[in-house]
Design brief:
The complex is a heterodimer of chains A (10) and B (215).
Chain A (H helix, E strand, L loop, with lengths): L10
Chain B lengths: L2 H24 L7 H14 L10 H23 L16 H14 L6 H15 L2 H9 L5 H27 L6 H13 L1 H12 L9
Helix pairs in contact in B: 1-3, 1-7, 2-3, 2-5, 4-5, 5-8, 7-8, 7-9
The chains are: A little secondary structure (10), B mainly alpha (215).
């Protein structure tokens, strides 16, 4: 579920 | 998700809970910078624009809702709550929002990964988060007696940043194509701002004396 862009971070 | 990232999120959550605990139970916001809290509300608003359009995980969405909700709730408490607002240290919390918001916005327009609206707002939120703690640190310096909860609040925030750096190092070595200069540099700047605070925090803890930052 973690996306390539690092946009899965808060 | 790795352990650093998760621990970082949890210390971030702890910082918010400590602050809400202080405000809600003691009904006091003494030593808390409204400016910093308003900047955080703006940070989350700008960063989580994709909350409804881009689903990553339930964890992610819930955490976003918590950070958005709590930041606005804290601002509401300090500005509007009949009792809490009386303890707000207006005289010492004099930092101007615009001095931080404007340069961050201009920088986001100039330096970003893609010049799309959401991307620029996301970059703006990273730059702004890096410096949003400044009004709080200035206020701590001006405050003679920093109470334990306020000290812990800033400590947890700093710990969250430090853990995120560990998370980036871990991801860099374990995930292909994980390179994010903008996130890293603004995150590093943000963490360095806590260095001074950490130094005095650990000293006060080691020597068992009340935390006080030199003017």
């Amino acid at each position: 579920t973690e996306d390539q862009n690092g946009k899965d971070e808060l | 998700m790795n352990i650093f990232r998760f621990s970082g999120d949890m210390t971030h959550l702890m910082s918010v809970l400590v602050l809400l605990l202080k405000i809600h139970t003691i009904k006091s916001c003494a030593g808390i910078s409204l400016k910093t809290q308003e900047l955080y509300a703006l940070v989350f608003l700008a960063r989580y624009l994709d909350i409804v359009t881009n689903f990553i995980s339930l964890y992610n969405t819930i955490m976003k809702l918590i950070f958005l909700g709590s930041s606005f709730m804290i601002v509401w408490y300090i500005r509007r709550h009949r009792i809490v607002r009386r303890s707000y240290d207006k005289e010492h919390d004099t930092f101007r929002h615009l001095f931080l918001v404007l340069p961050c916005f201009i920088l986001a327009l100039l330096i970003n990964e893609r010049s799309a609206f959401k991307e620029i707002m996301w970059t703006f939120s990273l730059y702004l988060e890096a410096v949003a703690i400044l009004p709080q640190l200035v206020l701590l310096q001006r405050t003679k007696n920093i109470d334990n909860l306020t000290g812990q609040y800033v400590f947890f925030l700093g710990a969250y940043r430090a853990l995120y750096i560990c998370n980036w190092i871990y991801r860099y070595f374990t995930e292909p194509h994980y390179v994010h200069w903008i996130t890293w540099i603004s995150g590093l700047v943000q963490t360095l701002l806590y260095a001074d605070f950490f130094y005095y925090y650990f000293n006060s803890w080691k020597n068992n004396v009340k935390l006080q930052l030199p003017a």
